[in-house]
Amino acid sequence: MEDLLQWIASSVEGTTEIRAVTPLKGGISATLHRLDLLVDGEVQPVVVREFTLLEWLREQPDLAEHEAESLKRAERVGVATPRLIAYTEEREVPAILMTKLPGEVVLEPQELDVWLRQLAETLVAIHRVPADGFKWTYRSYNDPMQLQIPDWSEQKDLWRQALALVQGPRPETRECFIHRDYHPTNVLWQNGEVSGVVDWVNACRGPAGIDAGHCRLNLALLKGVEAADYFLDEYVRLAGDAFTYDPYWDLLAAIEFLPGPPSVYQGWVDVGVTNLTPALMKERYEGLVAGILAKQV
């Protein structure tokens, strides 16, 4: 930790004193800390992410650079995003230092429809950013051609249809800048409004439908399929001619949970969600898949 703190102090302009270091929850593939820095007499909160998952680093050794470039590109989004301060790949554990955004994760909103509409509006704003020249490109987290009907499911016909679709030809689509892990736990709120979007390490050039589908998957598990459908309706309405819905991308995002079975996401538990069970996750997951298949023309 000492070498990390020295690097942080040397990366910030001005006379810097580290006043407090606080671990943050929510990181399942990296270690996150909040630091309160006294810079030229003014307290500044920042966040440092250390890429501690060795398997991830072996697959993507440029993670720190990737997130740094993602944060630079995300500055074009009409929504607050963390500002890059510095990153390093020289340490044994790569790290990135960024500003801390105000706000908190909200998963139990007072008005669900307003919350869903703002989530959709924020994602539309992200997808308006062009991806030209961004070197990281979309790839699926699993190989659809290697997937099989899950043995934990009794709905074999459902999964046979789903796999037939995602194992078929990939439709052409317009590429844009995508977050790649857009879901409610990566969106911050303040006074009933979105105050920022965080966790940009997976951002890339790719199809908007993957981002929308990934968020829908999380919404279906967290709030139910009806909420996920409402989010999609709002996204389509707000995106206008810039987006054409295709069930393929929606389903491709959903099957990234395979081989499964789906479980309760620890990030939800960390912020106080207590009403979810593995059985409910399975029911909602298969309900989402069935709903996507029903949208085929």
TrEMBL record:
Pfam annotation, one family: APH
InterPro entries in the record: AGP_Transferase, Aminoglycoside_PTrfase, Kinase-like_dom_sf
Aminoglycoside phosphotransferase domain mapped to chain residues: 40-235
Gene3D superfamilies according to UniProt: 3.90.1200.10
Domain of life (superkingdom): Bacteria
Protein name: Aminoglycoside phosphotransferase domain-containing protein
Source species: Tumebacillus flagellatus
